[in-house]
Design brief:
There is one protein chain. The two termini are 41 Å apart. This protein is 48% helix and 5% strand. It has 477 residues and is mostly helical.
Amino acid sequence: MGMEPAIHWFRRDLRLIDNRAAARAGQGGRPVIGLFVLDPAILGNLRTGPSRVAHLLGALAALDASIRRLGSNLVVRSGNPLEVVPAVAEEVGASLVTAVRSFEPYSRARDDALSQRLQADGRELWLSAEQLLLDPLHLPPLRTFSACRRRFQSALAEGIPGPTRPPTFLPVPALPRTEPLTAQGRGPSPAPEGSSPPGEQAAGRRLAAFISSRLERYAATRDDIAGDGTSNLSTDLHFGSLSVRTALRAALEAARDAPELAGGADRWLEQLAWRDFFGGALWHFAKLTTQEHRAEFRHLEWRGSEYALEAWRQGATGYPIVDAAMRQLRADHLIHNRCRMIVASFLVKDLHLDWRHGEAHFARELLDADLANNNGGWQWIAGTGLDAQPYFRILNPTVQGERYDPNGAYVRRWLPELRYLPDRYVHRPWDAPSPPRGYPRRIVDHAAERLVALELYRACSSQRSDSSSRPLEATPG
């Protein structure tokens, strides 16, 4: 009689290489069943847009193809994981289920409940921390990015273990039934036009291309909105088609072998440290999903209108860099990080709309939408989160456009109405001798609304008291 199988429950770790939880399932030569659960609580959530579902299904198809090359296949089931996972474990006689720990409140509660249910049946749920370099479960709350960066750099200095290999998967004849890769009976939604192919192998090619052709100039070009100076790996890291350890190792080894890459590598590693900072923040301060960390700003007066919110969503504010970014978001479901900062600042501090409106819109539209990073980024811009920018830092959209898209190439790509404007007017069309036909007028005046924003924030700051200005308390880990 052969060894009993273990189950590896794939979630946001859609890869075989450098997957410690999957390797743990196959420890000692134990055969593994790869399971994915199409959870309606996630796929049916309004915050989960169709583009992200399409990418997920494509990544799952790629994962299934990789497992089939090993003589098995991915088992797919639909339903509540609290029911599905124990049922599959009972079906195949598995006493061990492994998975990658998630830091989001829903996932934490689900995993706690599942662990108890499996324990009642004499089974174990074993979780590894792989979404981040630093495991917040074993760290105190890090309330500043500088503290997180020091921990991050120390972890890098200690060295990153080599990648784990795929386990031995259970042969096809012994597998339980599987279901087609569809979500809610809709089938795959079309991927955004021109989007990168999903899956582990494609992610590896993107990483290699970034290291070989763009890492050296990353520090100098990452803010070039019209160019391609970023890593383009945020979606792969979100879905776990690429291990963060693999990404870190690649940058460190490249910089060691070619010292001219060190500057770019250091800057990119700093961006990856922000993922750890926001992920740890969500673990320790779960209320960040609905509440400002800084209590004095929990009663900010939001004066914006539904009309202004819709104009922002549609890319019709009259500010070219804002509108270009929002139109690209609708088409590509990805935008440059600098653009995310510009449009977020505009929504909160020019339109005086609650940051939660923007956070929810990004959550639905972005392929790489991650609760920790999305929430952290929006609260950082709004000045309400952990170690956030000062509230009085208000980005001027016109100046930002002229600085990071100086020739207007990005704006012209997404706003054909401005295609023929001279460079001097492309970011300020209201100054052109003849206003461009078909492009909306500015819905607000930035200079005036900046003063309003300062007044609203100062009013909150001046009215705070000892009892109302306490930040969020850390939740028990």
